[in-house]
Amino acid sequence: MTIARLTQRELLLFDLDGTLVDSAFDLYRAMNLSLEYLNLPQVTEEQVRTWIGKGTSLFCESTLRYVRGEVDQQLHLQLLNTVLEIYNADPCVDTRPFPGILKFLDWGLKHHKKLVCVTNKPEVPARKILDVLNMDHYFADVIGGDRFEVRKPHPRPLLYCMEHYAARPDQTLMIGDSSNDVEAARRAQIDCIVVSYGYNHGEDIRLCSPQLIVDDLTELLAEV
């Protein structure tokens, strides 16, 4: 696991959903409430877990393709707006940190690393989740998908963090769970480690050839 090289890293960038926290049940709840409101059939939590990981718009698109067999653009917009309204109002009912996350974040704070959450989720619900779970104190900043005009896999959010915290590429590490994270890190020319348990829109994370896959972030602490 030499790719981690945690002792030389100054800046650790983390994805949120599927990396730090398991938010699938709350997304499933918001989707079914939205489908009910729009008089559409319900879906299962197992299906939702294969549709999330690359943004709410694609989540809604996949859901409509399943329940209707097609994606009507007007209905897609209605569903997207409804899901966002319901989910953003209460994004942390059953969301929980994944095993090993708090221990890894504790290590980061103890060793004076800059920890930043870089997510494609809008910033308000992202911050609310971390606040409700008492995880907000770990992070120097939370950069949501609405902070800039582009988001992962565009490298700008990552490059902004490196510039803001004066961290060189070799001092920076991205930790995520999807091809968006891997691609953003490649384009920012920084190393990236992915977790095996996350969301990648139902796709095998190995297909995007990540540098390293771990089952639990605490595996990385064995080197330090």
Give a quick precis of the structure.
With 224 residues, the protein is an alpha/beta fold.
Q: Could you describe the 3D structure shown?
A:
The chain has 224 residues and is of the alpha/beta class. The chain has 2 domains: 147 residues, Rossmann fold (3-Layer(aba) Sandwich); 66 residues, DNA polymerase, domain 1 (Orthogonal Bundle), CATH 1.10.150.240. Helices cover 40% and strands 13% of the residues. It has 8 helices and 8 strands. It has a 6-stranded parallel β-sheet with strand order 5-4-1-6-7-8, with helices on both faces. A two-stranded antiparallel sheet has the order 2-3. Helix 1 crosses helix 4 and helix 3 crosses helix 4. The protein is elongated, with a radius of gyration of 17 Å. The model has no long low-confidence stretch (mean pLDDT 95).
Please give the structural blueprint.
Elements: E1 11-14, E2 21-22, H1 24-37, H2 45-51, H3 56-68, H4 73-89, E3 96-97, H5 101-110, E4 114-118, H6 123-132, E5 141-143, H7 156-164, E6 172-176, H8 179-188, E7 191-195, E8 212-214
Parallel strand pairs: 1-4, 1-6, 4-5, 6-7, 7-8
Antiparallel strand pairs: 2-3
Helix pairs in contact: 1-4, 3-4
